[in-house]
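Summary for the steering committee. One of the milestones for this cycle was to obtain a three-dimensional model of the protein with magnesium ion bound, which we needed before selecting residues for the alanine scan. The sequence and ligand used are listed below.
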Amino acid sequence: MKIERVTVEVLETPVDLQYVAGGSSVGANWHVLARVFTDDGVQGIGFVVALRPTLIKALAQATEELGQLLVGMEILEVEAARSRLERAGGSMGPGGMLCLALSSLDIALWDAAGKTLGQPLYRLLGGHRDRVRAYASDALWYSLTPDELAKSAQHHVSQGYDMVKLRLGHEASPAGEVARVRAVREAVGPDVQIMVDATESWNETQAMAAGRALQEAGISWLEDPVSHQNLAGLAHLAHVLDVPVAAGERLYGVDPFVKTFDARAVDVAIIDLGRAGGITPWMKIAALAEARGIPVAGHVIPEVHVHLLSAIPNGHLVEYMPRSVPIFKTRLVLEDGHLLAPQAPGLGLELDEAACERFRVT
Ligand SMILES: [Mg+2]
């Protein structure tokens, strides 16, 4: 069961947001899709998603070059395969594009390993449960009016989600931020949890004022109130505010999470699968969090995160942001506010090859 061939492609995938208020934005996302083929006919797939095409060809080139180093390696020896790639790419890292290039290859290795063993990934990685609580965060942008936000949130609730996350942080005052939350609250009623993501928009003083006002308004999570580099500020906010402070999506690799956890800077760790460098480091970060009693959430890519968050004891929430729907025949299933981990071997995802062909740019 050796790796025989690795291919990498770039897909320009459509994003259709017509279903939400203010949804004039029929845009595009870019996928770097890696495929790992073994000598006994297994194909593993892995991917990362970018919002813009900038550097996407360079990322695909880096992924392709590293992928060729996997040829001849054993599919069930993922750590050995990664070590080879990390050594080879070491002078370009740690962090940055090296992490993103490693990520799609690492995901593809795990998908192939699961298919080789005939096990769904969430079981292969620990199998703590077969589903994970989900929240919807698509089309809840700063650019929308409070009315439009409310309509988007209602759409998500009509689809079965009972947790939604708004982006905030661009209003002139905490009262302006609260008004946006109130508009959504009126639309969805008292039983839907409203989370907010400030996307590092505030300094510490603004974050403290807004955080207090927003927790008073009944939000259930405050994400990225300040820069991830302001660990002391993040720690202070996490300590003083009652609402859980979540952060981590901008961290690359394992090491920055150790510093973040040791600073007690987060109540919830958000791990971005691409920036972490794939499933292997993701699992290590999650274990570091578990040892400190910190729950873990995923950042986008719900198709993979549903497995990872189901596998571990401290898997908390999966973010439903459906950016890869156009390239798969498989659809994730939502049941009672939980996304179910697919039961087929590996990631349990079937590519729509005709769609991939259509969207392929390189
Ligand atoms: Mg975020």
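Key point for the committee: The chain has two domains: 3-118, 122-340.
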